[in-house]
Amino acid sequence: MTTTLQPHTTALSRRSFLVTLGGAGIAVAFGGLVPIAHADTETVAAEGLALNAWVTIAPDGSVTLVSPAAEMGQGVKTALPLLIAEDMDADWDKVRVVQAPSDAETYGNPGFYGIQLTGGSETVRGYYQLLRLAGAHTRKVLLAVAATHLNVPVGELATEPGRVVHAGSGRTLSYGEIAALGVLPDPLPQASEADLKPADQWRYIGRREVDRVDVPAKVNGTAQFGIDIDLPDMLHGAVLRPPVPGERPERIDDAAARAVKGLTRIVPLSYGVGIIGESTDAVRRAKEALVVTWSTDSRARGYDSAALAQAYRDIGRDLTQHGVPARTEGDAPAAIAGSARVVVADYLTDLVYHAPMEPMNATARVIGDRVEVWAPTQGPTGTQGFAADAAGTTPDKVTVHTTLIGGAFGRKAEADFITDAVLLAKEVEGRPVKMIWSREDDVRHGKYRPLAAQHVEVGLDRASAITGWRHRVVADSIFARTLPEMFKSDGGLDTVVTDGTIFNYRVPAHLVEFLRQDSGRDVGFWRAVGYGQNVFGVECMIDEVAAASGVDPVALRLQLLSDQPRARKVIEAVAQMADWPRPREGRALGLAYTDAFGGHCAEVAEVSLDRDSGEIRLHEVWCAVDPGVAVQPRNIEAQITGAIVFGVSHALYEQINIVAGEVQESNFDSYRILRLSEMPRIHVEVTPTPENKPAGIGEIGLPPIGPAIANAVARLTGGVRLRHYPFLPDRVKAALAG
């Protein structure tokens, strides 16, 4: 008989663990353990045994798992804890999920430099390995404790959901029974990639049967979003902002506002006027009663979106103006100059608003140098910094409670609504202030996706093969404002604005340039960001090259992706789903593909066109997506469907118009979005490759749908190209007229 040395045990209550990179994988080990002589049974009975920062097990066998990311409808409150549960062999029916506190050292996303930030389709990708290792480590701790208690070698033990099993004697210990012992091994075991379950043993990952944990509360109305926060002694707040950003109040006539019953305070701010009152109605009425004279010297007063779109297009065409290279592979200009034929096109994309159902809001309380914030924020780490700046304190003295988010799409990673709440709360120290933007505030003061122009040139040889590809992106920078140090270190390149211009297609020479503009208006992250605009240029140009070469666009893509089996798989799959290229009476099909966020996604759109009105009707969409590991297949289908809807809406309808610095839209009566009656039928096929790590899935479905629509219109009309988002009826009619 072989004997195995059993680890000693140490009793403890809640402890966190550290993550270090090195060796063959990621080693997970606890830090700060304090050995004590006996188990703290009262703590274990009341709170459960905290095996690490992610997992607490109660004596009744219930398991509490921490979700470190913000739940904004994308399903991460299920997907992330599911990863822990998989490798610790938890019983999912006994799992409870709680939101992580604001603590980047413990809960930061490795994919975002260790900060707590949800966005960029980086959540499951960033946490995947870490959380699976946390689960594997938890399982090893449970096995070690069970081995000591049962007095058997660890190697003779196995786990089933929620229990440790010793097959030789038939004895078992539930996870609750192990927790009740109140002990942990000393030294603690470590976990590496070798301890992770192989895919053929997964119980939860990739299974359609797992339901999302956030849905029941959203259905029965008990879910708490930021806008639902209600605290004792709470006041309400709002901020009146100038019609043009960058201006300030020069004179405030608040006589009528002060007469409003329930008004508490008028607060002059450097960027507007704050209002605090006993109710939302009092605040609204006081805000409407204010008469403010604003300064008129903002640089943004010269912003005219229609004129800038044409100016940006002209800049893209002017090859004497050089940009910052994002990719230089071969000598594309020389290759194009020596080509037998050159296909040239310009693509324009208008400003777009995020349009979350829950507008910007936050609740804050300031007591001395301590700040507490309740907010639907995508970035607790950033919120700590923003709140600290506003309150004149340090981030370590700011506590952030991240609520459920009623739509974000990049907008709720920003600081403005957090700053509003904290500045108002400072004025009434000790009392919480709940600040809500009106829909009009939300529309007119957004951080829109940049207005952009793309100039694309592709050279073809006599056999119609591509010789060179030149792609120029003209836009304002997001990173220059949000990540200035990174922007500087990259030499003025904004990698998020140029996302999507660097692709898997095999071309012999490829040049991508970013020509930064500085218009005086802030621009920000919007679902799929650069991919959402630049894949439009890439995929429409691929179709234009196919037409110029007399090649089927599916066949051309497969040829250019001959060394990309995952890309070919989704293109072939979606073509089969849509029965490409079977003609439809009065309708046509268009296809587009993207490799955004580490995945592969191809879509086919079926459209018809009313030539008299210029209105495009989208009837059906087929999509094939390879997400790598499909952590939650049903949720992937839902996310892809939502992204397609978002993409259709911005391709056909959505635009922010700015004249003399002022936004012309104010609410959904003037900011047009896709309506329920205009929804196409959508079919999604998930084709996972479990040997690959998960891709980002929340945004990948958006970029292909716009170019797929444009390419379908071109096939329907014999080659009429739509090159300006959105495809408004007047723009369509102008394209038809030539």
From TrEMBL:
**Which protein, by its recorded name, is this?**
Isoquinoline 1-oxidoreductase, beta subunit
What Gene Ontology molecular function terms does this protein carry? oxidoreductase activity
Matching entries from PROSITE patterns are given as: TAT (PS51318)
Annotated Pfam families: MoCoBD_1, MoCoBD_2
Domain Aldehyde oxidase/xanthine dehydrogenase a/b hammerhead stretches: 220-298
What NCBIfam families is this protein classified in?
Answer: TAT_signal_seq
